[in-house]
From TrEMBL:
UniProt entry tagged with the keyword Transmembrane helix: yes
Name of protein: Claudin
Keyword Transmembrane listed: yes
Molecular-function GO terms, alphabetical: structural molecule activity
Family: Belongs to the claudin family.
Coiled-coil portions: none
Organism for this UniProt entry: Esox lucius
């Protein structure tokens, strides 16, 4: 695959990662719980970073936005902040990568500067992906640890497990990480295009000296 092809593939993966992070951050299924005591009180509860939803036995869904951030668990507050920071860094990386990829006409007179801008964009994607992976893994670990098993003193209706938003966030962060690495590897000297020419000044000098006597 050529250098421009690697750039485009990395850019596409990073773009998918940005969109996936936005979707995961807005999803309500970060924590989920199904509680069934009988056919009348059966319900499902979903907790997101911004709101919560309850689904009863008739599949009627009621959602409510959090009124105060001070009454939310620490994992929700921390994940919200870090995911927003990750998206902001990804947005900066997306802008820089758009300017730096070879298929655009920005910064065309200076190819080295254009390549460096793409590399910086890739670094932003890598940092954003590491942040998203770290906070999502920490969130999932916190939910798993809080899930008590048979020896638990916590009632079953208070037990939660991580939901689909965690999986979406993991997948998006992985795409951003791979895409950022592919963009960052385009730094001159890491991914070369074409063969490297080596000059031999002594041989050239000998040839010129020999030609003077011919």
């Amino acid at each position: 695959m050529t250098s421009s092809g690697v750039q485009l593939f990395g850019y596409a993966l990073a773009l998918i990662g940005v969109l996936g992070s936005v979707v995961a951050t807005t999803m309500v299924e970060w924590k989920r719980h199904s509680y069934t005591e009988n056919t009348i009180t059966s319900k499902e509860i979903y907790l997101g970073l911004w709101s919560s939803c309850t689904v009863d036995v008739t599949r009627n869904t009621m959602c409510a936005t959090y009124k105060s951030i001070f009454h939310q668990p620490a994992e929700i507050l921390a994940t919200r902040v870090v995911m927003i920071l990750s998206i902001m860094l990804s947005a900066i990386g997306l802008l820089l990568a758009t300017l730096g990829v070879k298929c655009t006409h920005c910064l065309e007179p200076d190819e080295k500067a254009k390549s460096r801008v793409a590399v910086v964009g890739g670094v932003f994607f890598i940092i954003a992906a590491v942040l998203a992976l770290s906070v999502t893994s920490w969130f999932a670990n916190t939910v798993v640890k809080s899930f008590e098993f048979s020896e638990s003193y916590i009632p079953s209706y208070d037990r939660f497990e991580f939901g689909n938003a965690v999986l979406v966030s993991w997948g998006a962060a992985f795409c951003s990480l791979v895409g950022g690495c592919l963009l960052a590897c385009q730094l001159p000297g890491i991914c070369r295009e074409g063969p490297v020419t080596v000059s031999h000044p002594r041989v050239d000098g000998f040839a010129r000296h020999h030609s003077d006597y011919v």
